[in-house]
Amino acid sequence: MTMPPLPQLIPNIKCLCCDVCCRFPEKNSPLAPYFTAGEVRRAIELGMDPERFSNPSGGRIELIPHPRGDGFICPAFDPDSNGCRIYSDRPLDCQLFPLSVMWDPSGDVVLLGYDRKCPFVAESLFNGSLFEFGKSIASRIETDGTSQSLRDDPELVGQFQEDVLILTPLIRLTEILRGRYSGKETLSTPEGIGLTRLLDDDRALFDSTLKWTRTELSSYSWPPLMIWKEHFQFYWTIIDRQFCLFARYADGLFMPLPPIGETLTSEAVRHCFDRMNSVNAQPSVSRIENISGGQVAFFEAMKLNVRPKEQDYLYDRESLVQLKGDLYKSKRWACNRFERDHRDHAVRLEPYRSSDLGDCLELFSRWKKQQGESEPFPVPGDHRLLMLEDAASAHQVALEGFSSLGLTGRVLRVSGKIVGYTFGFPLRDGVFCILLEVADRKIPGSAAFLFREFCREMSNYSTIHAMDDSGLDRLRDAKLSYHPSKILTSYIATRP
What we know:
Elements: H1 12-16, E1 23-24, E2 34-36, H2 37-45, E3 58-60, E4 64-65, E5 72-73, E6 77-78, E7 83-84, H3 92-96, E8 99-103, E9 110-115, H4 119-123, H5 128-143, H6 146-152, E10 164-169, H7 171-178, E11 196-197, H8 203-209, H9 222-226, E12 233-239, E13 242-249, E14 252-254, H10 266-279, E15 288-291, H11 296-301, E16 305-316, H12 317-322, H13 329-341, E17 347-351, H14 357-374, H15 383-400, H16 402-405, E18 408-414, E19 417-428, E20 431-439, H17 446-457, E21 463-468, H18 473-480, E22 486-494
């Protein structure tokens, strides 16, 4: 039975101007178009070279070298017109594009998603029609003969691709291909509920959403999230034209940020909670963190439980550099003590280099031990001790990947030995965020001196953001001792 062609999402004019489709970097690309037996016969009738089909019963077409460029092209592609010679009879594999039918990472569930290599998809992520079209194709695959075609030629279902934006699992198709499937397995994986793994290459997408934010909370930025990637797996999707970020850890799935879009909608929030609850064994794990003060009323209006989380601390940079007046007497004393103790030593604040990694990691290990000595932890499982253990990997990620994370780093040397390091990044116009800071606690005044001198170097910024206090009393007291110009409270929302 011949199925009617699938509708086309992308306007022809867009495709004819594109330089992505039908081109491949290698001759044996797994993404080369797949032709079924019937499609092979029809292509040959339309003038395609039979030798380009190594398997008449179905398979991927043999690619040919690009006549005027690098790489390879589909032999049905006409580089002169940028069109397809058999467009009206192109195979189902090509009709589906930019949608992709593929197995999930475990190879158990068939997923439908958008191939983000398509420029039209990349520029239309926040267009609701993109997702409506995807839903309509998913419904068609699940209800008409398209699924039968995919069953007869299972190689049409490709391997998992990380750069595909996952839309939905295809449960009926999975049943047809596997012969066994209840649908329950989808509840155990983020991919199964339509979430896509967040990759390092997704930073531009994430940063582009921040234009809609109205908060100075430090959590709305890439580095504070990514330094924890050893502990959390991050996923994302678009719901109701809002970017929705999820984090998965041992206990389940939660949202480190509320949905981000031009307008926050209750529909997006409800869908997010539904997805989290479908994965989490304990619904209490499902939560949205780092809600700004201006959003609290919105979440309370949805009858959600909203409670304070942590506080962020912002400072006038010039005050941190000058340390004038009685308010900063103890900080001035600490800096003066450090300078006095080391006036006969070479003291330098230098840019961090990759070659400093080993010395900085050794300093962190020493600093962590000093933390325990100054404030003994009553029990092995004390949350402060656990946070220190977790911080070790976060610091290592920052130290190893400072360049790709966009961090500015400095090391404090005394007679050539590193006794402190700090990293930060531009948060907003005029605001510089201090992400990490470690100083040898056995050297009085080193922390105060390091902080002051780093702030001094950030002369292009009027405000220094010292991030949150992690809910630790001692850290809160330290941040308050510098007399912040502004304190911001973040909130957590959960379902009753």
